[in-house]
Design goal:
Elements (H helix, E strand, L loop, with lengths): L4 E4 L23 E4 L7 E8 L2 H5 L3 E9 L13 E2 L21 E7 L11 H8 L1
Antiparallel strand pairs: 1-2, 3-4, 3-6, 4-5
Length: 132
């Protein structure tokens, strides 16, 4: 396999994240599906961020950080064993966009050839460097 891909049944690539996935509207993690995992992948990492927040808050806002996602339960991400890190909301786990129409949110999926060390004590900037 190759061509790693992350999709959702609740929104199209480049489309609007559903309202109930917004931080102030239920903060429900969107359903995600992974396909095309490269041969030799040991774990996956996911980062959801918002580069448009730079203008509003002076930095790229991190909504979700997860790593060491076990491939056993693919393709659905909901049941994956994973470690989740601190978001810019100061919380661990998924933190949806505050205004789903105002900002662009990107999900970065990374295939790793190793299981990553514990990153929970690292800053978000350092977590991103280690994961990617």
């Amino acid at each position: 396999m190759g061509n790693l891909k992350l999709t959702s049944s609740s929104f199209e690539d480049g489309g609007e994240i559903p309202r109930e996935c917004g931080y102030k509207n239920g903060n429900k993690q969107p359903p995600l599906t992974i396909s095309g995992t490269p041969d030799g992948t040991k774990s996956l990492a996911l980062i959801m961020d918002d580069p448009d927040a730079m203008e509003a808050v002076g930095k790229v806002w991190v909504h979700w950080v997860a790593w060491n996602m076990d491939l056993t339960f693919l393709p659905s991400i909901e049941n994956l064993d994973k470690i989740e890190g601190m978001t810019d909301f100061g919380e661990v786990g998924y933190g949806g966009p505050e205004d789903i129409r105002m900002f662009s949110n990107f999900m970065h999926l990374i295939a790793n050839w190793i299981f990553l060390p514990s990153l929970q004590r690292l800053t978000l900037k350092r977590q991103w460097k280690v994961i990617s």
